[in-house]
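In response to reviewer comment 3 from the previous cycle, which asked for concrete evidence that the modeling workflow produces usable outputs, we include below a single protein chain processed end to end. The sequence was submitted unchanged, and the resulting structure tokens are shown without manual editing.
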Amino acid sequence: KMENYFSYIEKKLEEKINFEKLEIIDNSHKHKGHKFFSEDKYHLHLKIESLYLKSISRLSAQKLIMSILKDDLKTKIHALEISIE
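The workflow returned the following structure tokens.
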């Protein structure tokens, strides 16, 4: 289930952004026991290698990724960390 969800995120990003490499790291386990922890929401770290994203400002790149995933951020993703390489 989780792997499918991650490939769905990858496809979603691929449609809008040119990137060389994407790694999705699930950090959800680190947050068990937190007040707002929810089994069905992910804490994700996206590591994205992209010449395109490097060519625009960090803020623009973050905003672009957030806007692509905005529905997921409402429903499935509790926290999103983005590293652009």
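Residues 11 and 48 are 13 Å apart (CA to CA). We consider this sufficient to address the reviewer's concern, and the full set will be provided in the supplementary archive.
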